[in-house]
Design goal:
378 residues; 19 strands; single chain; 7-stranded parallel beta sheet; binds flavin-adenine dinucleotide; Rossmann fold; alpha/beta
């Protein structure tokens, strides 16, 4: 890697997305990141490439391309069948050194969180982890700040350069990577002005998936570079893949989520049962605030929020959840938010489309009845 010079920024172009597959199945983050990558590539005026690693995975390339990629680089090798940090990091770094992308996006899945820092360290570049928003073009970024920040207009209007190593640096081509900081109390936009590629991991469920475009899928360039990989490059061996027997709740794919918070504390089992009943009626799933997970009332796969899942269901019902900033960070993009809380000043009401001030143990059975009636009369 020592010969890799990544400070000559002009040598780097194209946006890449690492496309994760597990046992031949693409992850939902792949489609979200390809869609977002398309937007960034258009802003930069470059191509968007998906980087797909695995064994006999070429068949997945067109599906990925349909969401916006110009090219899918398929790195096929028997030693890439199961994920190992060593093998995947080596192949990705080899590809980056050879083809020099200017940005590399990775899903913040368990694998992405393991892989991206390893690659960034090896490539000697910066990585912004757990991003919730990405921009390149200054005008678009400024509009985002006008909408999402409390910065005064004169500060926003004057943006355009940063001081890097004592010299002014034009940030117009830098990827602006925004993520929560200080426990979610503020959002920080981070740039990587000196090195390429700019690397970001993006939380699943944050970026919107574009509609599938068959024309793009048909016209994509599929390239299959030579993969240089030997068993001696890999220090770990996958002996067996054991799937967790318990079915985890699919929060990110759910259309309806009924979440419980510490408000269920006076009857934990009863509160969760009510949420399950309401979720059943609406064909939804049960979510939770972190308070319930930390207390051991419900398992971590149910947690919504900054350190849980980011969700955008059609309906989000919050039962006994105060609406802390870290919880809102994971659900405020829901299409319709219904909150039940006995405190009329609870912050959740600031973002709720419908707010019900009352005891969830009294209100939820009424909601179940009313929804049942409404569905039966449809
Ligand atoms: C770094 C960091 C990351 C975090 N990540 C997350 C995260 O991912 N997700 C998350 O949720 N939190 C997260 N938190 C925790 C967050 O700050 C809050 O502590 C948590 O969300 C509070 O959960 P809650 O709303 O259930 O509990 P509380 O804040 O205690 O609220 C309980 C609410 O229930 C209401 N209530 C009580 N009884 C009833 C009743 N009978 N009927 C109706 N309403 C009732 C109360 O009025 C109150 O508003 C994080 C914190 C930090 C510091």
């Amino acid at each position: 890697m020592s010969e890799f010079k990544n400070t000559v920024l002009e040598d780097f172009k194209d946006v890449w997305v690492f496309c994760e597959q597990r046992q031949g199945v693409l992850m939902p983050t792949d489609f979200e990141l390809i869609s977002e990558g398309r937007k960034l590539a258009d802003e930069l005026g470059v191509r968007l490439c998906g980087l797909l690693l695995g064994d006999k995975v070429e068949g997945l390339a067109r599906e990925l391309a349909g969401y916006g990629a110009d090219e899918i680089i398929v790195c096929d090798h028997p030693l890439l069948k199961d994920y190992t940090t060593d093998a995947y990091a080596k192949v990705i770094c080899d590809m980056v050194v050879e083809r020099k992308p200017e940005a590399l996006l990775v899903g913040a899945t368990n694998i992405g969180r393991d892989l991206a820092p390893r690659c960034a360290a090896r490539l000697h570049t910066g990585l912004c982890a757990d991003c919730t928003h990405l921009d390149v073009e200054m005008g678009i970024y400024k509009d985002f700040l006008r909408e999402a920040s409390t910065l005064p207009e004169e500060k926003i209007a004057g943006m355009g350069s940063a001081i890097v190593l004592g010299k002014p640096h034009d940030v117009s081509r830098d990827l602006k990577m925004t993520r929560p900081a200080f426990g979610g109390h503020l959002m920080a936009s981070i740039i990587c002005p000196r090195f390429r590629p700019c690397m970001a991991t993006v939380r699943p469920g944050v970026m919107k998936k574009a509609p599938f475009d068959q024309k793009r899928a048909d016209n994509v360039v599929i390239s299959k570079p030579e993969v240089k990989l030997a068993a001696s490059d890999i220090r770990t061996q996958v002996l067996e893949t054991v799937k967790e027997a318990r079915k985890l709740v699919d929060l990110t794919g759910a259309e309806v989520i009924v979440s419980v918070g510490r408000g269920i504390s006076k009857d934990i089992e009863g509160g969760i049962k009510l949420a399950e009943e309401l979720a059943d009626v609406l064909h939804g799933v049960v979510g939770s605030s972190r308070a319930c997970v930390d207390a051991g009332w419900i398992t971590a796969d149910h947690q919504v929020g900054q350190t849980g899942k980011t969700v955008r269901p059609r309906i989000y019902i919050a039962l006994g959840i105060s609406g802390a900033i870290q919880h809102k960070a994971g659900m405020s993009d829901s299409e319709c938010i219904i909150a039940v809380n006995k405190n009329e000043n609870a912050p959740i009401f600031e973002i709720a489309d419908y707010g019900i001030v009352g005891d969830l143990f009294k209100v939820t059975p009424l909601l179940i009845e009313e929804f049942k009636k409404a569905i039966a009369n449809k």
